[in-house]
Design goal:
This protein is mainly alpha-helical and about 90 residues long. It has one domain. It is elongated.
């Protein structure tokens, strides 16, 4: 609904900014000592990829890139939670 109420450019900017916020939030388990270095490395690498997709989507939008970003977000969450689980049992 955001593109309808605020326009496409604003929505793309919000996607990028929310991706930056998400990156910060995913570092909290390490910052609060709930996870270890394995999770931190995984979160930084996966988050860096997601930020790159968000940046590209904001600056050079295409429907194909939006679909790739969506697919990456599904993989991102799955792998991030898997790493958190593995880190817990190591």
């Amino acid at each position: 609904m955001l593109p309808v109420t605020h326009g496409a450019e604003y929505t793309r900017l919000m996607v990028f900014l929310y991706t930056l916020i998400l990156f910060g939030v995913t570092l909290l388990p390490y910052a609060t000592h709930m996870s270890g270095v394995l999770y931190l490395v995984g979160a930084v690498v996966l988050g860096g990829g997601f930020i790159a997709y968000g940046w590209k989507l904001w600056r050079n939008y295409s429907d194909a890139l939006a679909r790739k970003t969506f697919r990456y977000s599904i993989v991102y969450l799955s792998v991030l939670f898997a790493i958190l689980l593995i880190d817990h049992y190591i």
